[in-house]
Input
Amino acid sequence: MKNKVTNILLAGVGGQGTLLASEVLSEALMLGGYDVKKSEIHGMSQRGGSVTSHVRFGSKVYSPLIPEGEADFLFGFELLETMRCLPMLRTGGTVVVNDLKIMPAPVAMGQEVYPADIPAKIASSFPDTVLVNGMDLAMQAGNVRTVNIALLGALSRRLDLAEQHWHQALTGQVPERFLAENLKAFELGRAV
Amino acid sequence: MKKTILSGNEAIARGAFEAGVKVASAYPGTPSTEILENVANYPGIDAAWAPNEKVALEVGIGACFGGARALVTMKHVGLNVAADPLFTLSYIGVRGGLVLVVADDPEMHSSQDEQDSRNYAKFAKVPMLEPGDSEEARAFTRLAYEISEKFDTPVLVRTTTRISHGKSIVFPAEPVQGLPEPNLVRDPAKFVMLPANARRRHPLVEKRMLDLAQWSCEQPFNRIEEGKGEVGVITAGISYQYAKEILPDAHILKLGMVHPLPKDLIRSFAARCSTLYVIEELDPFLEEQIQAMGIRVIGKELFPICGELTPGRVQASLEGRETVLSQSTEASLPNRPPNMCPGCSHRGVFYELKRLGAFVTGDIGCYTLAALPPLSAMDSCVCMGAGISNATGLSKVLPPEQRQKVVGVMGDSTFLHTGINSLMDMVYAQAQATVVILDNRTTGMTGRQDNPGTGHSLTGAAAPAVDIETICRALGVRDIQVIDPYDLELTRQTLKDAMARPEPSVVIARRTCMLERRGAAERKLPLFVDADKCVSCKACLKLGCPAIEWNAEAGDKGKAVVNQLLCVGCGVCQQLCKFDALGVHNEK
Output
């Protein structure tokens, strides 16, 4: 089971907590005994810009970047950014995506149009698509800022990793005063 | 100690701590910034931001003269700023070990060029190590101090974005023990580079590099990994990981030290491969030196010289195909360019500069984004400090009516970095140009680091704050205005007056960065659009504020809406709306 590298591509918009989710994910995988590599781009004024993070795990990982077209999971925090990254996903790959639109500047300025029916378009190419209402789950958990962890919960059920590692990683990465609501959000997501 | 998962930058900080570093100095620069932020968390290290990279290196050199181990970090373009002391330090050598980490940015994710810093190692004649993952980043940083003291040389450690900001598993070790206590030792023949002393040092530098090249042939950081068949690869850094991924059967010579090269090792490796690739990012640095040894290798004839490598690009190059983009996008999807934050104080200044028809010589910072539409209000951007001195040069050659249009713009941190020198020259040259200092009380671009103007140190402790107005006055500027850039009328009038004046003038536009961590930025209730008053003129959209969205479905021609989650109520858009359609909630 552990001799294959599994590739997870996270895609979202700056400010959504994509990077924290990839931190927790990497930590949990390491605690589960895997070799893990992660690569991301930050810097510039990326708030509001596209953000992607590559996470790879297995018995031995070399490149921190996922080879083009070999992502097993596309883990999306926003619909358009998820759509943009579809070419990275392998045939038959899984999409776990937040049902949320954030307008990019050219759309907000009325110069371009936000594509219609993204969930349907994604699902038509990738039948294994899970649409998650992250905002709903986060509000149930008691804090709208836990959307990223709720989504992580939804992804977690599709990965071969014991629940204890996820809890341990969350405890290590999330500030203590927000831990209870993040654990709640994770559980709600895991039930999706 | 327990294994952990760290970024390359975090691992370098750990390595420096393990090596017993006492002083660390840097100017922030992506992707190097987090090294110093993490070093500051370790006990026993004096870690501080310097106003620029040259100063940072000179502080490090001073500590090393005292016998302490010192760490200096910067990004590639920062090494240009620090090049002057580096070249002479190569002659002087060290007392306590000195390591300079330089982070390159292939693909220019957050940089104005993608220079290859390995050339500096060769040019300055100093050794350079290049880690290929976070564990090597830790181990090589630690080892670099031993090399520095053993061979009496500063040591460069080079990373690239994928090492700096990539994470992998690290095995921390116990710190070294028994390092000597710092003290004063006079040794002018070594520390004073008068020509007579420097002439005596130069042969030592040349011998040192030969000794290092020989020594490194035997060191485990340069290693051969046996494969199958006749294909060999010489590689280093992140490129090693791509080579392992794409050519799992090849023999690999993985170089941990990329300068000087272990020539004997390279010769014996090359002798047993019928096909030899050199896989490296950016310049043909290894390739040219190996070719010069008379060994035939395949390098940049296949692999791209521009941009970063990826597994896909390596694969495509080997197959002779066009290299693919790492994120091939569907052309029909709208782009999502980065943007200045909602409530960013720079937005109004650029809006008014555009209206005044200013020719803006810009600089490096968040505000460089003003070059993008819809503001499109920046006409040049070269390097830190150039915003002001480019304006001086332009004003020297232009006819009077065009001269008045020239405005140099830079941020507070950039002004303290190298802008002071440029402004001094502008006054001295009696240039008739206007300077705008966008003072948002932080170093915004790299993630809100403190600088000598903020009143805080890297660790958050109180520090004396530079008074920018007083500096400008001391440099000889007679006309200095401080304005609130949220007030568009005031901003426009002040800029207009300054531009008309036939002497250097400075406008300081002061508002705290919206992301400032100490909560000093003022946030009000979000605004809203009164749809009955909105006449669809789109004037508010000219600001490019992320909080203002266009709803094409509303009314006949569409209407503006304010995103309640993003708006911070700065009120700049209200001043643009002639129809009073932008309201304040508590006035409803």
Summary: Residues 138 and 144 of chain A are 5 Å apart (CA to CA). Chain A touches chain B through 51 residues (CB under 8 Å). The mean pLDDT of chain A is 93.
